[in-house]
Write a structure and sequence with these properties.
Blueprint: H1 2-17, E1 24-31, E2 42-47, E3 53-57, E4 63-69, E5 72-79, E6 85-93, E7 98-100, E8 103-104, E9 113-116, E10 130-135, H2 136-140, E11 169-172, E12 176-179, E13 188-191, E14 194-195, E15 215-223, E16 236-241, E17 249-258, E18 279-292, E19 294-295, E20 299-300, E21 305-320, E22 324-325, H3 330-333, E23 346-347, E24 350-351, E25 366-374, E26 377-382, H4 395-401, E27 419-420, E28 424-440, E29 445-458, E30 474-490, E31 493-508, E32 532-534, E33 536-538, E34 542-544, E35 555-572, E36 575-592, E37 599-601, H5 624-629, E38 635-639, E39 642-660, E40 665-676, E41 680-681, E42 687-695, E43 701-707, H6 708-711, E44 722-734, E45 737-747, E46 763-766, E47 831-844, E48 847-861, H7 868-871, H8 876-883, H9 890-896, H10 903-906, H11 928-931, E49 950-966, E50 969-983, E51 1009-1011, E52 1018-1027, H12 1036-1045, E53 1048-1057, E54 1061-1063, H13 1071-1074, E55 1092-1093, E56 1124-1125, E57 1138-1143, E58 1149-1160, E59 1166-1175, E60 1210-1211, E61 1218-1220, E62 1237-1245
Parallel strand pairs: 1-7, 1-8, 6-9, 13-16, 32-37
Antiparallel strand pairs: 1-4, 2-3, 2-5, 5-6, 10-15, 11-12, 13-14, 15-16, 17-18, 17-62, 18-21, 19-20, 21-28, 22-27, 23-24, 25-26, 28-29, 29-30, 30-31, 31-35, 33-34, 35-36, 36-39, 37-38, 38-46, 39-40, 39-41, 40-44, 42-43, 44-45, 45-47, 47-48, 48-49, 49-50, 50-51, 50-52, 52-53, 53-58, 54-57, 55-56, ...
Length: about 1250
């Protein structure tokens, strides 16, 4: 009865306290010489480093399990009366790993012993899960750890670079982390068993990372893992931190980067005919020291109390001499855009003229003062000689222009890349101190504590200085605290409790600026901050490539995450039961002045001929920089800033059993339950676009804004049925062959913060009332400031009124969207069905090969790109059935982009003669397509949280070869042959993430299934490390020879993979503009349908092979425009976004290291390891993807600017050097080149 009470009490404590997941296990069977099981055998596992002892007893079936062992080297002892003592040494326990040690006792006395010293077998015989373990010692001895790429600021060593050694993975620091085809950045990181994932931006993995040398081992659970692991999609990463030992140990190291070890940057010129080589000074140095806490005559901590301290700091100073940007030419600054003119526009291949009979040309500047209606169409007159008179220029624009640098350098006379920025210095300092304390209260109770701080500081200087700069000082800090308690309740029962805290701060503190000095009428709500300005450029004729000011100025964002976990392990018979749970609370206090400084965007529309809209021209008139000089903005975002707090929490419970059915067959099964809440604002002040709620400011049309503070409602329902069963099996076919299989259901995390916090404070967007009109004028400044000339009421926050669209003039409410939509099902976390089946074979004791079929299917991933509500777009079928508009008819397509005030519209839709029939305040200059939208009072609505419609498919053959260190050689190889598909999701969110999906017709859901933009069908990774041996010698000369040849080290990391896919070119048929699919921030993958592929045509020009090294990218276009034909007007393209046979260079990673180990002091207790490492050792030239998804000037829109086969080919005047065109490979400033880089590593260990 007492045992029952103990079990019940411990279980209750585990379930209420809330699973240590960073420990390992030793298990096996105790038998006598005849093979009969031995029960009640005393088994002790002794940690060799700390002398900590863990005791268990064998069950009545002879089984034993030593669970929750900290990673390290152990010695187990089995003592049974009547038998010799059995001792097994050199057993390495890995994080989340299980090793099987079966013991056959020999008859004798306990004073006799049998000692086995061989290492544990590499075969995994105890589970069907798929995981990988990489020790930091191995990482430190391979050329795998880099400090950053050439030409950019680096950062401190990143333990996640262990991913580059594994099959089925992709990694780029602070950008991409993918595992087994699942969306990037859906991983989970655990430090000392508790969550340490960056909740602010999961792409940014180094903000709160642990110091590499403080980590003992990185364990990565990748498929069908045990029920104790959960709330992760693409990879569950476990960091176990190093502990002190009974002896004092330590190390000191320095990683040194100097440009003298680097190759010059190709495609650059220092003016003397040589390539440029940026000055680089990088050091990553630190030390570790650990041992017992021993205070002479006060306290002897041997075998009891230990510490381990780590200090690491990264320091870099860099002189950048390759800065290259586009600034307005001297002619542009004076209003002369005659040099910007390109060819005459065409429609379906025919020369275009507007309704006034004026021939129109690309980049032609039109005078807004001449706007009028001719034959029902709006037209303008072009400026003479494409030049704006000084008298038309805005004085505020001229004051801002004075802050722009002048063109300078060898390309100063060119339109693009004409600003060779003067050399400037930049630096970054990242510091990570940490300490871990361990204490053995008794042989049954052990506690540990851990603390670390990660701080990164950099001024982040760039090419532009002064108020117009967009550089923001980085000064982030992150604190990680852990406390763990382990107790052996009985010889067969172990209890673990843990608690922790992750606290991260990310200030965004920007310099002061007096807006009044600009001379505009009214300042914005943050008058001491420079406004954010996005001007934009033409691909071939320039303008202004730089976006000035800070989009989210003066912000202070925090991530506060308390964590708790608990687990109970109970060995009973052939079963090892484990149950437990974890609880995570997370809050994001944020002080933000986002958009309170005024965010102004400028586009070509304001100086374009309005006639062109919707006509399907091959290009457009107008010029962005000309619109800026006139002070006519395309958009204005403004708010007052906010102090808000988002937050959520999660709970995970599990129960699992490892059942040793026979000595050869082990079955793992378990069940996990996860409950997660969706992000909420603490006081209900975050808006939500309510699509089915009447809007009082839009004539009670459906589509209003709600706030949980006042609506007596909840935006969503949290998903209560996240049950994840797991099943795994391992069968030892022969002593050297194991069959392993597993299947399970796991759940990821609900939508996370992903830049949401700065957008919680309401802001309002002012857009043009019609195509070509100005949203605002620079001279007015803030049109909503007190006393503005428009009579607009000042704005404030929080403001719970349904004020979207807001009034911009008396009786005028242009369409304007709220910025946050919460999908009603977005609380549903992604569900992953995963499986693997494979064989593992031991060839020798130190060499194992394995192969497995690994697959998964993911559903319910967060997919803002698939929000049909967010698009607020038109459907061709609905247009025809409801309004009689046939998009296959040219006149009807033209009608969609015609202002409703036009007789062409009112003759077919008489009710639109009064724009208020759409809703009160709807401007008559808005187009018919806007009036017919489901919610005409809005444009597009960003669905930050949801919908959970993303789907992924992954199938692969994965193979590994593991050669454990012996005879001075260790080798690992990983191979993947994989197929990766997705629908609507590529990363944890669609916001500011790499390789977003390209959506064709969002209302045709299945049509958008596509090859992942991350797709790499073939991957091969080989790592090796070899240390030369010495030899026995008797003579002095031969001893000297032995010393000279021994202890040389050679390491290599080779990664070969398929090339990156090239996107299908975006269509220029204008269809998305006609059906309103282009002005929506949800279309982050680019708002265009696609060209159609032409059968039989080669995809590359002139037989070019991207891997052949047989073409000159500076003068040759590499893509074949004849391989594509534009989608007919009024239709969606039929091509897929990506094709498997349309890939760019393979771009392998080939790293090498060469060094020497010097052994100092008696028995080599002190070693000095010095080596040189080189990345891209053969100095291969890598070229930029000619159709990579490019970022536009807006921080919330990506990818619509890719060239297509109709794009003109432009060369630098007087030369054959390309500057744009279809198939143009950007080599300016080195392009995507990654020339050979080197670093020197020195490490002392004692």
């Amino acid at each position: 009865m007492r045992s029952l009470y103990l079990v019940a009490g411990a279980l209750l404590l585990a379930l209420t306290m809330f699973a240590q997941t960073d420990r390992g296990t030793i298990t096996g069977t105790i038998a006598d010489p005849a093979g009969a099981v031995v029960s009640n055998a005393k088994i002790e596992a002794k940690n060799v480093a700390t002398s900590a002892v863990y005791e268990v007893a064998s069950t009545d079936t002879g089984n034993y399990t030593l669970a929750q062992l900290p990673a390290g080297t152990y010695e187990i002892t089995v003592t049974v009366p009547g038998f010799k003592k059995f001792v097994r040494q050199n057993l390495t326990v890995q994080v989340a790993g299980t090793i099987r040690i079966d013991v056959i006792l020999e008859v004798g006395t306990s004073s006799e012993s049998v000692t086995v010293t061989e290492a544990a077998p590499l075969l995994k015989t105890e589970s069907g899960e798929l995981s990988h373990n990489v020790s930091t010692d191995r990482l430190n001895n391979l050329p795998a750890i880099t400090l950053g790429a050439s030409g950019a600021l680096g950062n401190i060593r990143n333990p996640l670079q262990a991913v580059t050694l594994l099959p089925g993975t992709q990694f780029a620091s602070d950008n991409t982390l993918r595992v087994n085809g699942m969306p990037s950045s859906t991983y989970s990181i655990r430090v000392e068993g508790q969550d340490a994932t960056n909740g602010i931006t999961r792409q940014s993995t180094q903000v709160n990372q642990a110091g590499l040398d403080a980590i003992q081992e990185v364990s990565v659970q990748v498929s069908n893992y045990a029920a104790e692991y959960g709330q992760a999609g693409g990879g569950y990463f476990n960091y176990t931190m190093k502990s002190g030992t009974n002896q004092f140990h330590g190390s000191a190291y320095d990683y040194l980067v100097n440009e003298a070890l680097n190759s010059p940057v190709p495609f650059t010129d220092d003016g003397t005919g040589h390539h440029l080589r940026n000055r680089q000074r990088r050091n990553d140095y630190g030390f570790t020291f650990g041992g017992p806490i021993d205070i002479p005559k006060v306290y002897d901590g041997h075998d009891k109390t230990f510490f381990f301290f780590n200090f690491e700091q990264f320091r870099e100073t860099q002189r950048v001499t390759t800065g290259l940007d586009t600034v307005p030419t001297l002619a542009y600054r004076n209003g002369d855009f005659s040099g910007a003119l390109l060819g005459r526009l065409t429609i379906a291949g025919q020369p275009a003229s507007d309704a006034n009979g004026t021939a129109i040309f690309q980049n032609q500047i039109f005078d807004p003062k001449t706007t009028r209606t001719v034959n029902g169409a709006t037209v303008r007159d072009p400026y003479a000689n494409n030049t704006i008179p000084k008298t038309d220029m805005d004085p505020v624009a001229l004051k801002i222009q004075a802050m722009f640098p002048l063109p300078v350098g060898t390309r100063a006379t060119q339109a693009i890349n004409n600003y060779e920025a003067p050399a400037y210095d930049n630096y970054r300092h990242t510091t990570i101190p940490s300490i871990k304390l361990d204490h053995n209260l008794s042989s049954m109770i052990k506690i540990s504590g851990y603390y670390s701080q990660t701080r990164a500081y950099s001024p982040q200087v760039n090419d532009f200085q002064g108020p117009f700069t967009n550089s923001v000082i980085q000064d982030s800090k992150s604190h990680t605290v852990r406390i763990n308690y382990d107790q052996s309740v009985t010889p067969t029962m172990l209890l673990h409790l843990g608690a922790g805290l992750l606290y991260t701060t990310q200030p965004n503190l920007t310099p002061k600026f007096d807006q009044s000095s600009l001379g505009w009428a009214k300042n914005f709500a943050a008058p001491t901050l420079f406004p954010w300005l996005s001007i934009g450029q033409d691909a071939s004729k320039g303008g202004m490539s730089y976006t000035g000011g800070i989009f989210n100025p003066y912000a202070y964002l925090e991530d506060i995450k308390p964590t708790q976990n608990a687990s109970l392990t109970w060995v009973k018979g052939n079963h090892t039961f484990k149950m437990g749970g974890e609880m995570i609370f997370e809050g994001f206090p944020d002080l933000s002045y986002s958009r309170a400084n005024g965010n102004l965007g400028f586009g070509a529309q304001q100086t374009a001929d309005p006639w062109e809209t919707g006509k399907g021209t091959n290009a457009f008139t107008g010029f962005s920089y000309a619109s800026f000089l006139l002070g006519r903005s395309l958009s204005l975002n403004h708010g007052t800033g906010s102090s808000n707090r988002l937050g959520n929490h999660s709970l995970g419970l599990y129960v699992q059993d490892t059942w040793k059915v026979t000595r050869k067959f082990t079955l793992d099964y378990g069940l996990r339950y996860d409950y997660q809440t969706l992000l909420k604002e603490q006081y209900g002040r975050m808006q939500d676009a309510a699509f089915n709620t009447p809007n009082p400011v839009a004539g009670n049309r459906n589509g209003s804004v709600l706030y949980e503070a006042t609506c007596n409602c909840s935006y969503n329902h949290n998903y209560p049925w996240a049950l994840g069963p797991r099943l795994g099996a391992a069968y030892q076919i022969t002593p050297k062959t194991v069959f392993r299989a597993g299947v399970g259901v796991a759940y990821g995390t609900s939508p996370y913060q992903a830049t949401l916090s700065p957008n919680v404070g309401d802001f309002y967007t002012v857009s043009p009332t019609t195509y070509g009109d100005a949203a605002t004028f620079l001279q007015d400044g803030n049109p909503f400031a007190a006393g503005n000339r428009f009579g607009n009421a000042p704005i404030f926050w929080p403001d719970f009124r349904p004020n979207y669209p807001s009034q911009t003039a008396p009786g005028v409410r242009p369409p304007q969207s709220p910025f946050i939509a919460v999908d009603r099902n977005s609380g549903r976390p992604p569900r992953i069905f995963q499986w693997s089946i494979g064989l593992q074979r031991e060839l020798t004791h130190d060499l194992v090969v394995e192969a497995a079929y690994v697959g998964n299917r993911g559903v319910w991933w967060t997919a803002p790109l698939l929000s049909t509500y967010g698009y607020n777009g038109l459907q061709p079928d609905t247009l025809k059935s409801t309004y009689g508009i046939d998009v296959s008819v040219p006149g009807d397509r033209t009608l969609l982009t015609t202002p409703i005030s036009s007789p062409l519209v009112t003759s077919r839709f008489p009710f639109l003669a009064n724009p208020d029939n759409v809703y009160p305040g709807f401007p008559g200059g808005q187009t018919l397509s806007q009036a017919l939208r489901p919610y005409p009072q809005w444009t597009g609505i960003p669905p930050f949280l949801g919908p959970p419609l993303g789907t992924t498919w992954y199938d692969s053959l994965q193979a590994k070869v593991t050669k454990r260190m012996s005879h001075g050689l260790s080798v690992d190889s990983a191979f993947s042959w994989q197929k990766e598909l997705n629908l609507g999701v590529a990363s944890d969110t669609s916001y500011l993430t790499p390789a977003p999906n390209l959506i064709n017709d969002v209302f045709n859901y299945q049509q958008n299934k596509q090859i992942s933009a991350f797709s790499r069908p073939f991957m091969l990774v080989i790592t090796a490390n070899y240390t030369t041996p010495g030899f026995a010698a008797s003579s002095t000369s031969m001893k000297a020879v032995s010393w000279l040849v021994r202890d040389w080290t050679l390491g290599t990391l080779l990664r070969y993979q398929s090339g990156q896919v090239i996107r299908t070119p975006p269509s220029s048929n204008g269809f998305f503009n006609q059906i309103r699919r282009t002005d929506n921030p949800a279309t982050f993958g680019g708002a265009n349908t696609f060209f159609n592929r032409v059968a039989g045509q080669p995809l590359f020009a002139n037989g070019i092979d991207p891997n052949c090294k047989c073409f000159d990218p500076t003068t040759q276009l590499v893509l074949n425009p004849a391989a594509w034909t534009d989608a007919p007007a009024g239709t969606f393209g039929t091509s897929a976004p990506y094709y498997n046979d349309y890939r760019w260079q393979r771009q392998p990673a080939e790293n090498i290291s060469l060094g020497r180990i010097f052994r100092v002091a008696k028995e080599g207790r002190i070693t000095l390891n010095v080596r040189a490492e080189f990345q891209n050792m053969f100095n291969r030239v890598f070229l930029a993807n000619p159709l990579a998804v490019s970022a536009s000037s807006s921080p919330f829109v990506v990818g619509a600017g890719a060239p297509n086969p109709l794009s003109p080919t432009v060369r630098v005047p007087g030369t054959q050097t390309l500057s744009s065109g279809y198939g143009f490979v950007n080599t300016f400033n080195g392009g995507a080149a990654q020339p050979r880089t080197g670093q020197i590593v020195a490490r002392v260990t004692f």
